[in-house]
Amino acid sequence: MSLASHLEELQRKHSDIEREIDDALLHPSVDDLEIVCLKRRKLAIKDEMEKLKARPSTH
């Protein structure tokens, strides 16, 4: 998988989780712990994207 396609996939996952968080916040029945877990997953994906962007290009 190329770096660009990997970053695109991570961005898609990041956006999907963001939508899940937004949906969860609209429903008071959703457990706060679930929202925290979603936010942690979103942050981990963001961190991974930043690490990939910071890597020196091998081209």
What report would you give on this structure?
The two termini are 15 Å apart. With 59 residues, the chain is an all-alpha fold. It has helices at residues 3-26, 32-54. Helix 1 (3-26) packs antiparallel against helix 2 (32-54). The model has no long low-confidence stretch (mean pLDDT 92). It contains two helices and no strands. Pfam families: DUF465. InterPro entries: DUF465, DUF465_sf. Residues 7-55 form a coiled coil.
**Termini separation:** 15 Å
Fraction of residues in H or I helices: over 70%
- Structural class determined from secondary elements: mainly alpha
Radius of gyration: 14 Å
Largest sheet: none
What do the pLDDT scores average to?
A: 92
Contiguous low-pLDDT stretches (5 residues minimum) are: none
Concise synopsis of the structure shown:
The protein has 59 residues and is mainly α. The chain has helices at 3-26, 32-54.
Helices, strands, pairings?
Layout: H1 3-26, H2 32-54
Entry keywords:
59 residues; single chain
